[in-house]
Specification:
By secondary structure, this protein is α+β, with helices and mostly antiparallel strands. The chain is 55% helix and 17% strand. The protein is built from 27 helices and 22 strands. It is elongated, with a radius of gyration of 34 Å.
């Protein structure tokens, strides 16, 4: 038989004929590849559908074709004239305030005041359904409002009841069930209260320097609403009002922060999918080896008749890739259906606009990942089949030959792994994170292989045990064809990822809860009128004499340039990009703020009156590549102010005290209207009664001051983080499913040898209970090695993320990590025994007759 007869068409024909007999033995192979491809295709399809939904619903989410946001100031007459000249204008204002009942109860709310033109796109949904102008109108001495149902629950109210916001009386006329532009507003810390602009002005909350965010939305004429027109208006606004300091959004970028978060979240889930594929790759290698073992007679016959090693490789490589293609098509089909399923099942519940559609590029990428992974892990056993002699193929019935494949197969596998790594890095949102993942995966695979080798070496060097069960279990750990490498690789990697998420979850909960009472203030007070600051101080000290009050002036500003380079052209490190994304809180001071220390430069004197100077947080300076003497330009109340960096500060953000990235010298903002911000810290952490008394008294004396209870705020943030981590934990659990599949595949691959072992041992007098005990101990010991590594590696990874990325102190949380480890160990033993029972079934006579 010549090499020509084993060309690609013949290899395909022969492979196809074999597959016509069925896919027996490929179940684990198909499941492993399909599961990984499903994860990648599903995440990519949902993310793309969500991006399409955000894009198609951009006008509704944004509330207009363009939106101009200003903080602490309203648009000037000239700016209003610019808006009116380009389309229909709607104005909305958002701020935080305190809602109070007549009996003294109060809570933080997110107030949104709208004009008669709101909404320009979409519709407000309320229960009962009432026209918005009628709903919000003033009637019988009270302004109308639509509120989140959470407010009614929190204050034990019902529709028709009244509350006070600032100096205004507000009647709760309906619950708010749908707010078209809610996604553009970001995360709220309290229930929404929707009122009219007239009601907002009646509250008295609009004071010079108040933290009110004004939104000016434009709806362009339908005949002139192209993307080119939108871009031209944005460019014109920037040119005509270079110092406006507003944030401009367009309908194509209605919620940039949400889009960034979706991209980051989908990237993590994609990496989880890749991890699942990598674990499944071990199952692929086992399945291919098992399939070739079953085909030993066929391969031996082919070689005896003159088939070349290359011809055998071509046939079975084609067969394996056809099966892999089938598996990837299953996974990609299920992944493609995921956004449709989510939209059908949860479309009325989820707050995000999902536009389900097929995304060929996403599905193609997932298929490529699946095929490359299958090929990379199949090349090793396929390459070994190339050089196995005819005599060894027939003798392999009772003894397996262990040898490396030819270097060309090793090189091909390595090249595919490099391509996979490059593809993973190139197609993800954050190349740095993807590169770290690839490097970590390679390191973990290598370490896990070393762990398996170490476990086998220890088992080999242990002294001979008197117990037959123990001796047999230890021998099985290091014997040729042992399950040790497969179990350690798959279980160790899957558990490491899950423990990483669990430990991060535990540390965030500890940071938000356990460590809070000892170090955090009880309240933040916002919008304290500067003219009433001294009266406010005296009032709070009288009401809470055993507490500490800290108060500083506060304004909002946007960094527009650094060293003359525009903000959009700055490219800081990832951890400091947030500094440029929105307006920031800023202040001025005569001395360094508490909770910070000077690490470079000098603080200005208390009587300093020269050029504007600024103190910059040191990590921000490092990430922006700024040093002493450089300049930063901020826009405050429509005015650009350039200050020179006088010193750098290390800030202790963990104590949750008042601190700022930017602290300016006195006189920098002379004449600029502003309010103050303050914190109140009880000496012993404060009781609920003390906190309630302070809030009630403050609400009566200073109705326009907003109080944020730190514990409630962190509870709200903690709940968001908990839900996010719960989703990540669920996704990470997929890797353990893949590990279980790999274990099943490894058992199937070793089934033939286990049968002969069991037959020989039973012939020599071993009983089924004794063999079962030996196998259980074997799986327990191998699983224990994998579990110890998984917990250790996951804990180290979590420590790096928490301490380096989140910059919290890391504390190992043993409870849930230990629970996951015990569960993984139990599943390993149970699956191992379930697969072993098949090997214990055949009688010695039936097997020995076929040797």
């Amino acid at each position: 038989m010549t090499a020509l007869r084993f060309a690609v068409p013949f290899a395909f024909h022969f492979a196809w004929r074999e597959l016509r007999g069925g896919l027996r033995g490929f179940g684990v192979f198909i499941a492993c590849i399909a599961l990984g491809v499903l994860a990648i295709a599903g995440v990519g399809s949902v993310a793309a559908s969500l991006a399409d939904g955000l894009s198609s619903a951009g006008q509704v989410i944004l509330g207009g074709d363009l939106a101009f946001a200003l903080i602490q100031r309203q648009a000037s007459d000239r700016e209003r004239a610019f808006f009116d000249a380009h389309g229909q204008l709607s104005v909305a204002a958002t701020l935080r305030a305190m809602a109070r009942t007549s009996d003294g109860r109060s809570t933080l709310v997110e107030v949104k005041a709208v004009d008669a033109a709101y909404p320009l796109f979409g519709a407000v949904a309320t229960d009962p359904a009432v026209a918005l102008p009628l709903l919000l109108a003033e009637n019988a001495g009270a302004f109308g409002a639509a509120v989140d149902a959470a407010l009614l629950t929190r204050l034990d109210l019902k529709t028709g009841d009244r509350i006070s916001i600032g100096n205004a009386t507000v009647e709760l006329r309906a619950t708010l069930t749908g707010e078209p532009d809610k996604l553009a507003g970001g995360i709220g810390l309290g229930p929404r209260v929707l009122i009219s602009e007239a009601a907002l002005r009646a509250t008295g909350l609009i004071q010079p320097g108040s933290l009110v965010r004004w939104q000016y939305r434009l709806r362009l004429p339908r005949s002139d609403a192209s993307e080119r027109t939108v871009a031209a208006i944005e460019k014109q606004a920037q040119a005509e009002f270079p110092d406006a300091g507003w944030e401009i959004r367009t309908r194509s970028k209605a919620s940039p922060q949400l889009e960034r978060n979706v991209e980051r979240f989908s990237q993590f889930l994609t990496l989880v999918g890749l991890t699942t594929l990598l674990i499944g790759g071990v199952g692929v290698a086992n399945a291919v080896a098992s399939h070739l073992a079953r085909k030993r007679d066929v391969i031996g016959t082919m070689k005896a008749l003159g088939a070349t090693g290359g011809g055998v490789f071509a046939i079975y490589c084609t067969e394996i890739m056809l099966v892999a293609l089938f598996a990837t098509l299953i996974g990609s089909a299920l992944g493609a259906a995921l956004p449709f399923s989510i939209s059908w099942a949860f479309g009325a519940v989820i707050p995000f606009p999902v536009a389900p559609a097929l995304h060929p590029d996403v599905l193609a990428l997932a298929i490529v990942y699946g095929l490359l992974t299958a090929l990379a892990f199949a090349l090793w056993p396929l390459g070994r089949a190339h050089d196995i002699s005819v005599s060894m193929l027939f003798r392999d019935q009772i003894a397996a030959e262990r040898r490396w494949p030819r270097w060309r197969y090793v090189g091909a596998a390595a090249s595919i792994v490099v391509v996979l790594a490059a593809l993973a890095i190139a197609t993800t949102y954050d190349h740095r994170i993807a590169a770290i993942f690839v490097a970590s995966a390679a390191a973990v695979f290598l370490i896990l292989r070393l762990v398996a080798m170490l476990a086998m070496w220890i088992a080999r060097t242990l002294p001979r045990q008197r117990s037959t069960v123990v001796r047999l279990a230890i021998a099985n750990i290091h014997r040729p064809g042992a399950l040790t490498p497969s179990i350690v690789l798959s279980l160790g990697l899957g558990l490491a990822l899950l423990v990483t998420v669990i430990e991060i979850d535990g540390n965030l909960h500890r940071e938000f809860a356990a460590a809070l009472p000892q170090q955090a203030p009880s309240f933040f007070f916002l919008d304290i009128p500067a003219a009433d600051a001294d009266r406010f101080d005296n009032f709070v000290r009288d009401e809470a004499p055993q507490s500490t009050l800290e108060r500083v002036p506060m304004m909002r500003g946007r960094i527009v340039a650094a060293n003359g380079v525009k903000a959009e052209d700055l490219h800081p490190a990832a951890r400091s990009r947030w500094v440029l994304q929105n307006d920031r809180g800023i202040t001025y001071a005569t001395s360094a703020p508490a909770g910070s220390r000077i690490v470079a430069g000098k603080w200005w004197g208390a009587d300093y009156s020269g050029e504007p100077l600024v103190s910059l947080e040191d990590r921000t300076a490092e990430d922006f590549n700024l040093k002493i003497g450089d300049t930063i330009t901020v826009n405050v109340l429509g005015r650009n102010i350039t200050a020179r960096i006088a010193n750098l500060r290390a800030v202790d953000w963990e104590n949750l005290g008042i601190n700022f990235v930017l602290v300016f010298s006195p006189g920098t903002f002379s004449g600029a209207p502003h309010t103050d911000i303050a914190t109140l810290t009880f000496a012993d952490g404060g009781t609920v009664g003390e906190e309630t008394a302070v809030i009630k008294a403050l609400a009566d004396a200073f109705p326009t001051v907003t109080a944020l209870r730190v514990k409630d705020t962190l509870d709200a943030l903690g709940s968001i983080v908990a839900n996010l981590l719960l989703a990540l934990r669920g996704a990470s659990s997929i890797t353990l499913v893949a590990a279980a599949l790999v274990l099943g595949g490894a058992l199937a691959a070793s089934q033939r040898f286990r049968v002969y072992d069991a037959v020989v041992l039973k012939t020599l007098g071993a009983t089924r209970p004794r063999l079962t005990a030996a196998y259980a101990l074997e799986y327990l010991l191998i699983g224990l090695a994998a579990v110890l590594f998984g917990v250790a590696a996951g804990s180290v990874a979590a420590a790096l993320v928490v301490s380096r990325v989140m910059e919290f102190p890391f504390v190992w949380v043993p409870g849930q990590a230990t629970g996951a480890a015990v569960a993984a160990l139990l599943v390993t033993v149970l699956l191992g025994l379930a697969g072993t029972f098949g090997a214990l079934g055949p009688t010695p006579a039936a097997v020995l007759r076929n040797l």
